[in-house]
Write a structure and sequence with these properties.
By secondary structure, this protein is mostly helical. Helix content is about 65%, strand content about 0%. The longest helix is centred in the last third of the chain and has 26 residues, at about 320-345. It binds ligand D68, magnesium ion and zinc ion.
């Protein structure tokens, strides 16, 4: 009957739209992964990872059965918690950004298939089972995780351990076809890339990238910046690539960036609520009673994101320029809001809400 036909037509159109969105992850920066989440019954990581690993021919190269990869990535996705920010959509975002930057021309013929596999695997699992609180909070509350990992990169150790434990779930061992040498190298690379997403390593990333860019400037003879024979340099670049992807929210189209900002602030505020209830000092940015979201974002961009991406874009010129342009325009918009936000505090709300910051339906914090 008509109702049934209408329902099926809608379902078909949603699947066609989903397929188009997933296809666009091949070569588009800033795919709306919130849309992919909504259309994929909240399984964006499984859909996008399966698509990208097939598109890169990784499954064929390592004779990984599609069903095994599907079971593994589904098990990983199910272990991401429904935090406002550190959830499976964020994992998909970091995976897709890492995939995009591995295609930069400066990396052509640099990485082996195993290195690409390890980097994308690390991106997909890099925050699995994140509890929605920071390392410092886990340390301050004497959590089991902090005891287990002796306060050192507590979350990041947990993410990578759980990822490898998931391989031993029935039918999930995507590494079973790797030989001993490959398995050993893959494991070393994934551990180092996931541990490198700990923000306490942020300054070291900038130092390594500066050194690499400096060497390139001096040895102007070397056509390609990266020596494909230098495994250590390549591993450092993969670490920085995934770390940059983890810090890429302010470089995404404004409507996506603002949704990530809402989500991270809600996650930080919930931690602040816990700290208050435990009579602990409230961490920076975590006090929902007095926070200025735009000022925090200005600081986050100026002191954290831009210093890293500025050097990263110098290493990866010219492909990073369009992305750096988005950062610049987003920062201008944020700065304009700071002024308006101050006005609001003066009470004379001029009321001209910039339509950009209304992303239509208020994103429900899952
Ligand atoms: C420098 C200041 C003026 C401004 C400032 O930021 N802080 C806090 C601060 O420097 N840090 C370091 C980064 C930490 N951190 N922060 C993340 C994050 C993600 C998205 C954000 O917004 C938007 F892009 F969605 C965001 O906005 C921020 F404003 F909150 C923060 C994650 C990054 C990677 C791993 C886990 C998350 C992580 O470890 C948090 C503490 C200052 O202290 C002062
Ligand atoms: Mg993390
Ligand atoms: Zn992350």
């Amino acid at each position: 009957n008509d109702v049934e036909r209408l329902r099926l037509t809608r379902k078909l159109n949603m699947n066609i739209f989903l397929a188009q969105l997933i296809e666009s992850t091949n070569d588009t920066w800033g795919v709306d992964l919130f849309e992919v989440d909504a259309l994929s019954n909240h399984r964006p990581l499984t859909h996008v990872a399966l698509h990208l690993f097939k598109q890169r021919n990784i499954l064929k190269q390592f004779q990984i059965r599609e069903l095994t990869f599907f079971k593994f990535i589904s098990a990983i996705e199910a272990k991401y918690r429904n935090n406002p920010y550190h959830n499976n959509i964020h994992a998909t975002d970091v995976l897709q950004a890492s995939h995009h930057m591995l295609n930069f021309s400066v990396f052509k013929n640099v990485f082996t298939e195993l290195e690409v596999f390890a980097a994308l695997f690390a991106a997909a699992v890099h925050d699995v089972d994140h509890p929605g609180v920071t390392n410092q909070y886990l340390i301050n509350t004497n959590s089991d995780l902090a005891i287990l990992y002796n306060d050192e990169s507590v979350l990041e150790n947990h993410h990578v351990t759980l990822a490898f434990q998931t391989l031993s779930t029935e039918g999930c061992d995507v590494l079973s076809t790797l030989n001993r040498k490959q398995h050993q190298m893959f494991r070393k690379m994934v551990i180092s890339v996931v541990l490198a997403t700990d923000m306490s390593k942020h300054i070291q990333h900038i130092g390594h990238l500066k050194t690499m860019v400096e060497i390139r400037r001096l040895s102007s003879s070397a056509s390609s910046i990266i020596d494909p024979e230098n495994a250590e340099d390549k591993l450092q670049i993969l670490q920085s690539l995934v770390h940059c992807s983890d810090l890429s929210n302010p470089l995404k189209p404004l409507n996506l960036y603002l949704q990530w900002t809402d989500r991270i602030m809600e996650e930080f505020f919930r931690q602040g609520d816990l700290e208050k209830s435990l009579n602990l000092e409230v961490s920076p940015l975590c006090d929902r009673e007095n926070s200025n979201i735009c000022k925090s974002q200005m600081g986050f961009i100026d002191y954290v994101v831009h210093p890293l991406w500025e050097i990263w874009s110098r290493l990866t010129q010219p492909d990073c320029q369009p992305i750096m342009d988005i950062l610049e325009s987003n920062r201008v918009w944020i700065a304009s809001q700071v002024l308006t936000e101050d006005d609001k505090h003066d009470g004379d709300d001029d009321g001209d809400d910039d339509k950009d910051d209304d992303d239509g339906d208020d994103d429900v914090i899952r």
